[in-house]
Amino acid sequence: MIYLDYQATTPLAPEAREAMLPWLDRFGNPHSPHRMGREAAAAIDVATSQVARTLGDKGERGKLIFTSGATEAANWALRGAIARGPRQKIVTIATEHACVLDTAEWLARRGVETIVLPVLPNGLVDMDAAAAAIDDRTALVAVMLVNNEIGVLQPIKRLARLAHAAGALFFCDAVQGFGRVDIPLESCDLVAISAHKLHGPKGIGALWLREGLDWPPLIHGGGQQQGLRSGTLSPMLCAGFGAAAQLAGKRWDQDGLHIKSLSAIIDDQFQDWTLNGDREARYRGNLNIRRDGIDANRLISEVREVAFSAGSACASGSGRPSHVLSALGLTDAEARSSIRLGFGRYTTQEEVEQAARLINLAAARQLEWA
User: Fold this and answer.
1) Please, are residues 43 and 30 in contact by the beta-carbon 8 Å criterion?
2) Distances 348 to 170, 273, 306 between C-alpha atoms, Å
3) CA atoms within 13 Å, Cβ hemisphere of 27
4) Does 111 share its domain with 183?
5) Strand pairing report for 190-194 and 169-173
6) Which residue among the candidates 99, 188, 238, 314 is catalytic per the annotation?
7) What is the mean pLDDT of residues 32-45?
8) What's the CA gap between 236 and 80, in Å, rounded?
9) Is 305's pLDDT higher than 80?
10) Among 222, 249, 276, where does a domain finish?
11) Is 99 labeled as catalytic in the residue annotation?
12) What is the overall mean pLDDT for the chain?
């Protein structure tokens, strides 16, 4: 099968798998004081450094706390900002991932003021609305760097300046951008990342916190991870995350050129389709396109040789149009005729050409019998 769903998850890198395998047998608890424990702890320290370096922190900017994934990290960022007090206002964007929007909604039901900013038809935030919403009551501004459905790049630096000018913190969901695009770490107070979007294992992510930021613990217990998130860490998952992050750093230029070449091919193959989102301010490994008269879900079921999607894997099967595409102003019919193609390091030119041919043939059949 041709895999074009890189925004949902990525293939495990052989280097990450190799780093993980020894820890299936080396079972020492990394928080124990004996030799086996110290060896496991050392492996986690190495992984922490590898992930932080790829993020852009060589050890002086902040601290990295491993989590079960980016969803946990985002929940912790929003709920932690409110728990710190005294400010009780969250500002975010209509196209954010569900882990941010649903957490913001949960906080709103508990009396927290929540502002969800609109986006323009190209998917970029309305900066005038942002400037009006971010004020001295705001605790946190939460914005995704690369949108998981349409690949649009939000103006993180400009939004962070607005947040900091108002005395608020800035949280960046960098899951889709980590290891792929530059992350303006100097503009952020908190950053969420995930291993399995970077050719690492599922079940592990991290929250990066700026140095000096006092943050409430997420989980109480044994005081692990500097007392911020208690619980026994998995050396295997940490090692896989670290290896995947280090590899992304080494392959930065190579992977970038590969994505650029694949993007040019796939753009050419889908000229009869309309792009959803901004054409320039976007990560080019994510193509979200639509064609009038197409039923995206039917198309996915008909083209069984290709794995692609109609949007976020987290919302698949809900029966509702994508909230991201709706925020762009698309009608329900337009949203339901949209597909997302995600490609990356292990995608070949032959695969994207074959996938484009199969998808276009199936789309033509639909239109012929419409």
Assistant:
1) yes
2) 37, 22, 13
3) 1
4) yes
5) parallel
6) 314
7) 95
8) 28
9) yes
10) 249
11) no
12) 95
What are the Cα distances from residue 180, in Å, to 257, 264, 293? 11, 17, 34
Residue in this structure with the two tokens 């709920």, named with its chain if needed: 79
Give the domain extent around 238.
Answer: 14-249
Instruction: Please give the Cα distance from 201 to 244 (Å, whole number).
Output: 9
DSSP label at residue 353: H
Q: Residue 340: give its domain's CATH number.
A: 3.90.1150.10
Buried b (16+ CB within 10 A) or exposed e, 74-84: bbbbbbbbbee
Tokens 């424990």 sit at which residue? 37
Give the rounded distance of the alpha carbon of 28 from its chain centre: 31
- List the structure tokens of 99: 């882990």
Please check whether residue 9 lies inside any domain of the structure.
Answer: no
pLDDT tens per residue across span 328-344? 999 999 999 999 999 99
For 193-228, give the DSSP string: EESTTTTS-TT-EEEEEETT-----SB-SS-TTTTT
> How many domains does the chain divide into?
2
User: DSSP character for 146?
Assistant: B
Residue 209 shares a structural domain with residue 328? no
According to DSSP, the β-strands at 62-67 and 205-210 are antiparallel
